[in-house]
Amino acid sequence: MEFQEVIALRQSCRSFADRPVTEEQLARVLEAANAAPVGMGHYDDVALTVVQDATLLAKLEEHAFAQQEWMGPHPLYGAGTVVCISHQADNEAMGWANVSCVAENMLLAATDEGLGSIYLMAVPMAARSSAELCEALHVPNGFLPFAMVGIGTPSAPQEGRALTTDRIACTRVR
């Protein structure tokens, strides 16, 4: 797929079909994560956990919903594969920057693989309050979950959109 086509197709998927992500698709998404820019090249400040265990996914949803009911009872939207992105806790600003770059690469790679994807922030933020969930997510000591990326086959085909430069205000200084 051409890069501009990937950009045009990339969108948040909020309904996934009950079809597993293949190992090849997952490998490409994880390769993209590992190709993301990370501040000062400190890749050891970032950790990934691939979650495909239905019981753990249900626990994450239950915990998040209990803390923030506005999300609804299924804040993972049926994604059968969720990648938790954790970062060293001692540098929150760098954590957000690094995790966002890693997540965006994964989202774009998932689109290129024909998968739906969604950037999840409220679920990992809720998981931070549970030592049990952090342990189940294999979050290393001194790290915190910052974001998750849900991936899977979308329930309905993703439709591209026209690319434009008028959605975000832009001022040029010359």
Could you give the order of strands across the largest sheet? 1-2-4-3
How many strands in all?
4
CATH class reads Alpha Beta
CATH fold-level label: NADH Oxidase
Tally of helical segments: 6
Residue share in helix = 25-40%
CATH superfamily (homologous) name:
NADH Oxidase
- Specify Rg, calculated over alpha carbons: 16 Å
Weakly predicted, low-confidence segments: none
Number of domains: 1
Order of helices and strands: HHEHEHEHHE
So what's the overall shape? globular
Biggest sheet overview: 4 strands, antiparallel
Structural class: alpha+beta
The fraction of residues assigned to DSSP E strands is 15-25%
- Which architecture per CATH? 3-Layer(aba) Sandwich
Span between N and C termini?
35 Å
Oligomeric assembly: single chain
Mean pLDDT: 97
Structural features, described:
The structure is a single chain. The chain is α+β, with helices and mostly antiparallel strands and 174 residues long. It has a single domain (3-152), classed as NADH Oxidase, CATH 3.40.109. The protein has six helices and four strands, in the order ααβαβαβααβ. Strands 1-2-4-3 form a four-stranded antiparallel beta sheet.
What's the gist of this structure?
The chain has 174 residues and is an alpha+beta fold.
Task: For this entry, give a set of tags.
174 residues; alpha+beta; NADH Oxidase; 4-stranded antiparallel β-sheet; Nitroreductase-like; FMN; oxidoreductase; Nitroreductase/BluB; Nitroreductase
